[in-house]
Design goal:
Length: 145
């Protein structure tokens, strides 16, 4: 249902271990995700603490869902002297490759307490269904020897 491919994920982990910094291709740690199926829908949750709802963009093209979010610096101007800055700032994005069995026309999104929750229904054609068998019972003829 939900296909996960990220060719740079392992390279990014290796770069982070060796250099102690995030890699240059993607930053999956900046947008951690959980995905699970609940009944007839897939639920995907992204942690986006400190991101305002107007700084989140959701786009879908074909079966690729792109989530883009921007964590902006705190307001304060020139009279703020940062003492510790460990939270990453900037634009983060993540792509999900959705299977054909999901109904991408009816995705709903909710953002509460720093968690973006997407609900993606399973397409009607992919739901399990019972197939009725029709026909009549044919008369049996016994063969006599």
């Amino acid at each position: 249902m939900l296909m996960r491919t990220d060719p740079f994920r392992e390279l990014d982990r290796f770069t982070q271990q060796v250099l102690g910094t995030a890699g240059t291709w993607s930053k999956p740690a900046a947008m951690p995700m959980d995905a699970y199926r609940a009944g007839d829908e897939f639920v995907v949750c992204f942690d986006l603490p400190g991101v305002s709802p107007d700084a989140i963009e959701l786009d879908i093209e074909r079966n690729v869902l792109t989530v883009k979010a921007e964590r902006r610096p705190l307001p304060g101007g020139d009279n703020v002297e940062m003492q510790v800055s460990e939270r990453p700032l900037g634009v983060f994005s993540r792509q999900l490759f959705l299977g054909d069995t999901l109904d991408t026309d009816h995705i709903s999104a909710d953002y509460e307490a720093g968690v973006l929750t997407l609900r993606i229904p399973v397409a009607e054609k992919a739901k399990p269904r019972r197939i009725e068998i029709s026909g009549t019972q044919s008369d049996r003829k016994e063969i006599q020897a």
